[in-house]
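Deliverable D2.4 — example input (structure tokens):
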């Protein structure tokens, strides 16, 4: 826990650097180009991450007045991921500005290991509909909403520091025992070997633990797709 914290703190200081530069890489983060204009090379075989303010269109249906975290505190990360087809694809993820660097540490490891991700689109593409996104096997972070299956609780996704990964291979069981997405019930059998399924100790789980994030797969009502900074809900 302690090393993870110090790493998070070290990279936390560099969040502003990443935003200013636009292009993120561990090298750029530790030794920013003096001119501050690192050339963006969208190498498809690298993570090729960029970080920017979130355009309003990317927050449609997912942010509204009264939400706990506003657009100014969010960032749009664009980065490549390895798909189930063995090729890389450009993805988009919206997170809180304070977690940009640790999140990119995670996805750097996930990319290097070629852990497959089905798709990575902002929740505006699904009109903020968590069920629709889960059914589409989407990987996403920010979405100002209540907990799916428990409307009395604000989801941690509202704060931009929770991420759901491969929602079909990693379903979620709500407080009433209902499986989301409903088509993913076969994946509640965690003994099987399935590409994109998160397992204790695998690259996703280990990378998340290294930044101090907690996995919902350990809960009595498991949320296998869910990781969050503070270990909170769904
Ligand atoms: Zn979640």
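Example output (designed residues):
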């Amino acid at each position: 826990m302690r090393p993870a914290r110090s790493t998070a703190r070290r990279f936390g200081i560099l969040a502003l650097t990443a935003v200013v530069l636009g292009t993120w890489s561990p090298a750029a983060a530790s030794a920013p180009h003096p001119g501050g204009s690192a050339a963006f090379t969208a190498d498809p075989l690298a993570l090729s991450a960029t970080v920017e303010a979130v355009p309003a269109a990317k927050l449609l249906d997912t942010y509204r007045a009264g939400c706990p975290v506003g657009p100014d505190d969010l960032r749009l990360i664009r980065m490549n991921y390895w798909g189930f087809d063995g090729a890389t694809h450009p993805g988009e993820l919206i997170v809180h500005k304070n977690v940009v660097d640790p999140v990119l540490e995670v996805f750097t490891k996930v990319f290097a290991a070629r852990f497959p991700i089905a798709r990575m689109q902002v929740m505006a593409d699904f009109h903020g509909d968590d069920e629709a996104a889960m059914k589409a096997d989407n990987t996403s972070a920010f979405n100002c909403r209540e907990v799916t299956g428990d409307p009395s609780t604000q989801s941690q996704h509202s704060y931009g520091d929770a991420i759901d990964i491969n929602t079909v291979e990693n379903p979620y069981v709500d407080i009433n025992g209902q499986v989301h997405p409903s088509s993913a019930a076969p994946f509640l059998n965690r003994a099987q070997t399935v590409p994109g399924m998160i397992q204790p100790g695998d690259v996703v789980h280990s990378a998340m633990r290294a930044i101090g994030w907690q996995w919902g797969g350990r809960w009595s009502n498991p949320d296998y797709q869910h990781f969050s900074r503070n270990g909170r809900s769904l």
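The two ends are 22 Å apart (CA to CA).
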